[in-house]
Amino acid sequence: QVQLVESGGGLVQAGDSLRLSCTASGGTFSNLGLAWFRRTPGNEREFVASIMWAGDMTFYADFVQGRFTISRNNTKKTVDLQMNNLKVEDTAVYFCAAARSGLARQKESQYDYWGQGIQVTVSS
Fold first, then answer.
1. Residue 110 — left, alpha, or beta (φ > 0 → left; ψ -120 to 50 → alpha)?
2. b/e string for 100-119 if b means 16 or more Cβ within 10 A?
3. pLDDT tens per residue, range 62-119
4. What is the pLDDT of residue 119?
5. Quick one: which of 93, 117, 118, 98 has its CA closest to 108?
6. For residues 81 and 58, what is the distance between their CA atoms, to the nearest angstrom?
7. What is the DSSP string of 76-123?
8. What is the pLDDT of residue 105?
9. Best CA proximity match to 82, nearest among 67, 63, 62, 94
């Protein structure tokens, strides 16, 4: 069983940067595919970014537009999401997810473990 805990959320202004981190415990972290999803107000949870077990392939949602970067540290058992040039519409609860498959998938159903989520609020 893998437990995931997000940190680094908060309130920022539009144009600012924020770095989310997710720390894992249990399981074999280096074998996991990892991802960030988010739930914006009034909407379903959506894919943001993912990274394969080896860290050599990453995928991003179209709305990221080069502003976010996902990275992993298998020694520290962390996956980070660096978010730059934040927009008001990036306001959401952000979730860390892990997949036993080791792949960098984009659908919720393809992930086996989830963090509890962390709030990011971007003000204008």
1. alpha
2. bebbbbbeeebbebbbebbe
3. 999 899 999 999 999 999 999 999 999 999 999 999 999 999 999 999 999 999 999 9
4. 98
5. 98
6. 12
7. TTEEEEEE-S--GGG-EEEEEEEETT-----SGGG--EE---EEEEEE
8. 92
9. 67
The backbone region for 65, taken as left when phi is positive above 0, alpha when psi lies in -120 to 50, beta otherwise, is left
Which pair of structure tokens corresponds to residue 122?
């971007």
pLDDT digits (tens, 9 = 90+) for 38-75: 999 899 999 999 999 988 899 999 999 899 999 999 99
What the block records as the tokens of 116 is 């509890």
**One-letter amino acid of 3:** Q
**Which string of DSSP letters, residue by residue, matches 32-63?**
-EEEEEEE-TTS-EEEEEEE-TTS--EEE-GG
Torsion angle, CA of 54/97/21/119, rounded to 10 degrees? 160
Nearest to 2 by CA among 111, 120, 118, 103: 111
